[in-house]
Amino acid sequence: MLITYFDEVKFQEGKQPYYWIGGIVVTPEMVWNLEKLVSKLSCECFSEGTLSKDTEFHAKEIFHRKGNFKGWENIEKRMSVLLSLVDILNSEPNIGRIYVRIDPAKMISENNIEEKAFMFFVEKVERYLRDQNQPGMLIGDRDNERVSKQFAETLSHYRAHGTPYLFGIQLTHLIDTVHFTNSHHSRMLQLADLYVWLLQFNSNTKQNKHPHFVVIEHVRQKTNILIPTKYKIWPTDQSWYNFTD
């Protein structure tokens, strides 16, 4: 049994040029090990390992000194925490890393970006599960009730009828529904948040600027995090698609 924890980075015109959805695929044993490591780091940072909003790690908040790290003026200490999380994520060599990047600038219409990205992501997760010959399920961040409900209903349709794409596939290994919970209740969703944040950070950041280059250099030279197991960048200059009725 494999579990995919996933998160997203939304498209923002003028700020974030892409829509990202990505996730980490883990065994229950990996969850056990990773949770212990993040909880230990939580005790070091907050003197408490219990899951709550007050002990939540968000990569963006750490980097930009917001949320639980608003009072952390020492940038080196914040980068130390961020790189510790990076090393924890990289500590499981067999973890699956899957992402989809949508480029709205290359689309005729920017409608339903989230739906298209989710469909492609589901396909990539399904193909990964087939490669591993394992059943699996999806767990996402309950950031938006409307989107959560939409994704759950959409996956049910995909499981019954396949993905609505000219080259769509049947889902034979994804089971159940999409489960959603708050990220402050899941260390694994916090690591999924870190993964997607690192993807967009590597793509968009000014990499010769401190402390940006500290993070990028560490991730590129000392980890495999940016090497995906499955991915899709869409649309490309050659790609096209067609939804079925």
What does this molecule look like?
With 245 residues, the chain is an alpha/beta fold. The chain has one domain: 2-Layer Sandwich (Nucleotidyltransferase, domain 5), CATH 3.30.420. The chain is 44% helix and 17% strand. The protein is built from 7 helices and 6 strands; from the N terminus they run ββαααβαβαβααβ. The protein has helices at residues 28-46, 59-64, 75-90, 113-132, 145-161, 187-204, 212-222; strands at 2-9, 19-26, 96-102, 136-141, 174-181, 230-234. Strands 5-4-1-2-3-6 form a 6-stranded mixed beta sheet. Helix 1 packs antiparallel against helix 3, helix 3 packs parallel to helix 7 (212-222) and helix 4 packs across helix 5 (145-161). Residues 240-245 have low confidence and may be disordered.
Summarize the topology.
Elements: E1 2-9, E2 19-26, H1 28-46, H2 59-64, H3 75-90, E3 96-102, H4 113-132, E4 136-141, H5 145-161, E5 174-181, H6 187-204, H7 212-222, E6 230-234
Parallel strand pairs: 1-4, 3-6, 4-5
Antiparallel strand pairs: 1-2, 2-3
